[in-house]
Amino acid sequence: MTFQVALAFEDGVTRFIKCKPNETVADASYKARINIPLDCRDGACGTCKAFCESGTYDGGDYIEDALTDEEAEQGFCLPCQMMPESDLVVQIASTSDVAKTAAATYTATITELNRFSDSVIGFTISIDNRDDLVFLPGQYVNIGVPGSDDGTGKQATRSYSFSTGPNEDTLAFLVKITDGGLMSEYLRDRAQVGDTLEFTGPFGSFFLRERKRPSLLLAGGTGLAPLLSILSKVSVDGSDHPIHLIYGVTFDHDLAELDKLEEYSKSLPGFTFDYCVADENSSAPNKGYVTGLFAPQHLNDGDVDIYLCGPPPMVEAVRTHLADQGIVPANFYFEKFNTSATPGGVTAPAPTDAEKAAAEKAAAETGQPVALDSPADPGNYEIGEEHPPVAESDAQFDARMALELGVLELTIGRLTPEQLVEFRILAEASGASVEGDHFTDAEAFTDTTAAFHQFLFRCCTNPVLLDAYNRLEVTRLMYRVLRDAQWIEEHIVDEHLQLVEAYEQGDRARARDLIVAHADHAKATMRRAISDGATAGAR
User: With respect to CATH, is domain 3-91 assigned 3.10.20.30?
Assistant: First the structure.
């Protein structure tokens, strides 16, 4: 028995290895000649520290200096020690070049050309070594355009997401056809079944994560492709959570694969979909934009994972709509394209008069057209993900406060003298990295304050509370945001010490007041850290 481990590198390259249950991920990686960061191999240095996106594993043995308990609870891991218990997706803190590996290249044969309309063509390919090609649903490959030249004597490539799932034998793609597009003109004018294509991949961090809540899939034009791949994977694995897909295009002739969506709506439990067309003269049942089809049940009060593939205006329109509704999704994964070579397989023509009219109407009605592609420089696209920033999600800190108030009732007056001493040591340690209203060592503070806040949950006799605390998104946000912060609300350190004093005196009322006040000061600190980080990133 072996498990499949996806190693996702910082430069977008994903390599897959096979790993036995009693084999470490690092050992399996090196057997496959992929040199991920490694030094001691004994769980002592932390050089190989990575982040596990999904899957279960035995973390192995290591020392606190290499990986703290808090980091392990957040999903960080040491590949030199971890052994898989399921298939894994692991983010490696290095580039593929440093790891002395690269995306694989494959030779394919076109087996089918499906001309959905003058504006959309789908094509299917086969490769002899299909078992060697492993990808995550949502990822893309770079496909060489026959007869082209990129200006250096090499074949030009265009990037397209798989529209089929990783468990299917066939490999299919969707392409928006535009005049002047290299792949567009090849597919429209010259392509034949039996033609040979070369492609390299897989690439990209836009892929299906472990499903823990309802999902909302949003597609603009042929951005439908990676979402079809995701649906294919879910149909194989099964689904315990509902999935709703909304598909938007500019004109009726841009629609494709509606029959496949209908099939999934019948065969995949919990899956539903809607589609809309921006053109007011459309014969579609829904005219307008994807945001017009959002319903409260699709957003689930924010406890939803959103996957969006579409042009930049669509991404911004969705962001604006969510903000207007006061909704902060648990996770927001996006792939936005605006070029003639895009991961979602959408090319970018100069808009026609009719398309300009549609765009103007969109701007007037919503401020953001959601299905009109805009021209840009080749190769310019963006893949990203967003999680609820604390500045927009005070509810997360309120949830932590509520849990801390609950654990207060179970622990005050019940801590041993030894536990009270440890509680004070942790409070004092958190203050060692702060002077007034600024950090002297934000990274050290992040670690010590996390340990301080978790302490009472570890002392509590109710493991459910500890589990609930560890699952809060706030904890992960602290690790991601606070480590590079400069400013801290000046009362925070004193509140840590005062809370210890309240416990020593058994003063429940004072402890409650301190926890409530501390939550507000923690919110202020995180908001400032996020704001400063966004400003620095924009420079």
Answer: yes
**In angstroms, rounded to a whole number, what is the distance separating the alpha carbons of residues 379 and 244?**
30
What is the assigned CATH class of domain 391-538? mainly alpha
Structure letter (DSSP) for residue 159: E
Strand partners, 273: 245
* Integer Cα distance of 330 and 323 in angstroms: 13
Is pTM beyond 0.70? Reply is no
| pLDDT value, residue 278 | 92
Class of domain 215-389: alpha beta
Average pLDDT over residues 72-89: 93
Answer for the pair 431, 51: CB distance below 8 angstroms, yes or no.
no
> What is the C-alpha separation between 150 and 166, in angstroms, rounded?
30
Strands 3-8 and 88-91: parallel
Helix (H) or strand (E) holding 308: strand 305-310
First and final C-alpha spacing in the chain: 49
For residue 222, give the nearest of 183, 180, 268 by alpha carbon: 183
Q: Is the pLDDT of residue 341 over 90?
A: no
Q: Which residues contact 237 (CB under 8 A, 6 or more apart)?
A: none
How do 14-19 and 215-220 pair as beta strands? Answer: unpaired
For β-strands 215-220 and 243-249, DSSP reports them as parallel
